[in-house]
Amino acid sequence: MSAQEPAERPSSQQPSVLELCMSQQSHHQNGIRLSFNPEITEAITLENLPYHYCAVTGNVNLAAFLYTQKVPFSKGITIANFAADGKEGTTPWKKPVTLSPVDIADMAGHRPAALVLALIGAQVPLHWTRDNHCLYPKSFKSQVKTLMKVVTTSPFFASLPGPARMLLVDTLVISLAQKTVWSPLSLQVWKEQWEQCVGDDYGEAQQMPDAQPSDVKAAADNPNMASYQFQIRARPPNGRWRSSLLLGLAVGLVAAEAAHSTGCSGPMLNAAAFCAGVTRPISTSICLGISALLRKKMQRH
Fold first, then answer.
1. What is the mean pLDDT of each run of 10 residues along the chain (301 residues)?
2. Are 251 and 220 in contact (CB under 8 A)?
3. Taking the complete model, does pTM exceed 0.85, yes or no?
């Protein structure tokens, strides 16, 4: 090795992301906190989260109408935060867990809505023109090039005057954009028959204000929401499975009881099993049972 070449760091001195997670401190203890925000329990309505509402209902035509009305696209809502105080406990950090309208559409099983909302989020114009062609996806531009090669080599196209050629090309490309890029939308959208294609939400959608918050909807910490602290650990040797199981069970009991005391249900209770599963997979089933028992207890109350 020449004098100019720097010495390579030993692999043992190159930490992985997993090792960094394992070394985090929170509340003067090793671990990372997971705190849920109140938004996770709020209903998704057209008024407060218009594009998320389109996602959960699968109404792609409503999303297109809101887009034409210039209702700003919301990037997401923060439902939870991962946080810790850093490796030495002196560098606190927080990582929000956000759900965009596209995420909500995928979670709700509305793939066409997810495709339309992704286009809206990318600011792809609904109506194609020569000026906004650069804003369309690369795959569409490739299709247009292929189409133009076929059209321009036609003797019929060569016989047309200049203005007629431009009109023909524009008509073909507009039709291609509607049938490929915006294929989930109904034909009524292109005729602007909004009342027929949007449905019952058309009246309320017309009253939407011009300005909506376009950034991530964050929430202040709420002490009444469930909060968990867990530690990421390497898989223990076979001889330590009992202590790992007890640790996972303890974490699950604390998390499940916290969910019960805060009145949370469903995802909150299942988080107990998740926390336990971090330390030892076998304890997940035990904490799922705990969660089920607490869920029944909450139902009785």
1. 51 76 86 88 91 96 96 89 90 93 96 97 96 96 95 90 93 96 96 93 82 48 62 59 52 52 47 44 48 53 54
2. no
3. no
